[in-house]
Write a structure and sequence with these properties.
Length: 177
């Protein structure tokens, strides 16, 4: 149905469409999904995020991709790679990230999708290094980083989270081809 850039066993990865905005807005307004972020996001903030992803895709051929389950073509969130340019000793860099609807947690989608995005980044785009960042307290995301073969570099204080004590200390993982 959709025009997928690539697929994994159960997931389709694509550029964003207008139909995704309200669905991503619901995900971004879920307090459990956004537990390790400074706040939930408004629909306007979600719309701006999706627009940034569309522009990044046009510029680079990648972004945090909109993701559907292939079984029923249902949008479930995003998994992909994105430019990070905040001020740190490892930026600018390309990082991998994911945010899925809470109803889709525990099904292995983040791990499956992240592995496929790494393959795409290394084999199709020709990138040689991918990083992943999360607050130290986000153990579930850190587990995914380990499952996809990334190795821990270090802990650091994220400059964009300096006003959020429980989120500021982050961990960074990386994988090189």
């Amino acid at each position: 149905m959709e025009n997928y850039i690539f697929k994994s066993e159960r997931l389709g990865f694509r550029n964003w469409s207008e139909n995704d905005n309200p669905k991503m807005g619901l995900i971004n307004s879920n307090t459990t999904v956004m537990e390790y972020f400074p706040s939930i996001l408004s629909q306007e903030q979600t719309d701006a995020f999706i627009e940034r992803m569309k522009q990044q895709f046009l510029k680079n051929g990648f972004c945090y991709f909109a993701v559907d389950t292939l079984e029923n073509n249902q949008f479930i969130g995003f998994i992909g790679i994105s430019e990070q340019t905040f001020s740190a000793d490892f930026t600018p860099c390309i990082d991998i990230g994911w945010r899925l609807s809470q109803s889709e947690w525990g099904k292995g989608y983040a791990t499956e999708g992240a592995k496929k995005c790494l393959d795409f980044a290394f084999d199709e785009i020709g990138l040689t290094n991918i990083k992943a960042i999360c607050p130290v307290i986000n153990k579930n995301s850190e587990k995914v980083m380990k499952k996809i073969g990334m190795r821990k570099m270090k802990k650091f204080n994220h400059p964009l989270l300096s006003n959020y004590n429980k989120l500021e200390e982050c961990v960074i993982y990386e994988l090189s081809k």
